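Our working data are protein records whose layout never changes between entries. Getting from the letters to the tokens is the skill we practise here. To make this concrete, we reproduce a full record directly below:
***
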Amino acid sequence: MSEILAVKQSIIESIKQAVVEAQKAGKLPEVPLPDVSIEHPQKAEHGDYATSLPLKLARSTGLNPLNIAKIIASSLDKGEEISDVSIAPPGFINFTLSPDWLAEQVDSILTKEQSYGNIDNGNGKKIQIEFVSANPTGPLHVGHGRGAVLGSALANVLDAAGFKVQKEYYVNDGGNQIISFYRSLYSRYRQSLGIDSEMPAEGYFGSYITELAKELTDEHGDKFLKMSPEEGESKLGKLGLDKMLAQIKDSLESLRVYFDSWFSESSLYEDGQYEKVMSLLKQSGYIAEKESAVWFVSTALGEDKDNVVIRSDGTATYFATDIAYHYNKFIERGFDKVIDIWGADHQGHVSRMEAVVGALGIDPKRLKVIISQMITLKRGGELVKLSKRSGDMISLSEVIEEVGVDACRFFFLCRSADSQMDFDLELAKKESQDNPVYYIQYAYARISSILRLAEEKGINYEDGDVSLLNDESELTLIRRMLLLPEIIEMISNTLEPHHLTYYAQDLATVFHSFYKQCRVVTDEIEITKARLKLVASARIVLDRTLSLMGMSAPEKM
């Protein structure tokens, strides 16, 4: 456990102990103790942590909460990390961290280096995050990019929190959409060879299909016309599918998104998993045949309606393969927790997925579905709808190319997944304080510049005395740096990685303020060395934060 989390836990334990002692002494009635929690006060003058426990106890004891606060505070063993305990209306107990203890944390951060912030919240539990998983029938768009960044940043944080994380892309390489893709590609292929060929009504009409067909024609000529239409369509389609998957991988890797596993939907049928799961559900009474189709009896588990798993034509629905896929995740591969990040169009799929997981004997709480809402692209105040290049939808690759990877990752991450967001392409490219990406990275570049200057002057600050760090702007910076383990802990509990972007901006703001207030390299060598230690530790924390977001840390700007 990190030092700051240990201090938080110590404060909580001391509060509990103080209440027990007050009850034994007859100062407080012996009522059950509510959950004890501490949080950061809204105003800095109220200290570093506060508890509202007296307000909770007032309800069960009938006593004045301010008096309860005074009784608890008088019995507290505050420890060396706390310099002051105070009472505030209507019944808060505030705790202020010791300046000496804060200064000591600079050395602690320098010792930990890139492991700073890591916690053991996960205790090595196996957790899988499945994200993006777009049908490989077309290029990725910006909405996919948002899900990709959410998933990869969340994976980074969960890894730092002590979980054993696997990142997976579920490849939808079966079903009706693949048949439509094959038919569309085959039709465009024939057209590229001068043969009149009608596109299927349910086909894919984007310009990328025409370009893909031409690419395959250039590589293979009329090879697929010499086969039967069925064989030609199938073999051409598989080649096209491989190329689309390769394109998807390239787009994701250009966004610094990598997967540990690419799981094939078709493998569920080849390995017999699908039949096994349907048989298990049937034995449990959750499968029924009616209206010429096969249904999962969701109503037996509290759902409003039953759901089709096998259509009247004998083909499996998307839901059916998803059931087999989640059985594979939980039962076959033994993940303790599964996180699915889906697009907004899958919102209605969530409750029935949780229901079927329960029907398979798995605690539904082990499944967490995060819905990633839509993105609206803007250029200043103007809405951007179509690609300038192709006239079709704007691809993820085009946005990365225009604004850069770091801007994409930050802006995709800067709002909670369940909120729609505007992405201003002009702001993302702006080199000013208005652009949070520039502002944060400039703080890192400024830190690097200070440390380069010290190196050029031959200043060795390894023996710097951190106890000299007592200016309020220095202590404020240390306080912000100490928040990183708390941020990691919170995100590992809430699965909301957007908090990283706010923390990064706050940390950069506090560093810029410190830089204005305190000159680092001065004629006073001892204070210079102490401040260089502080700057070096700030570099570690900011670098760590950028790394968790998947962003680069530029030495110069």
Q: What stands out?
A: Residues 229-254 form the longest helix (26 residues). DSSP finds 20 helices and 14 strands in the chain. The two ends are 36 Å apart (CA to CA). Residues 276 and 324 are 8 Å apart (CA to CA).
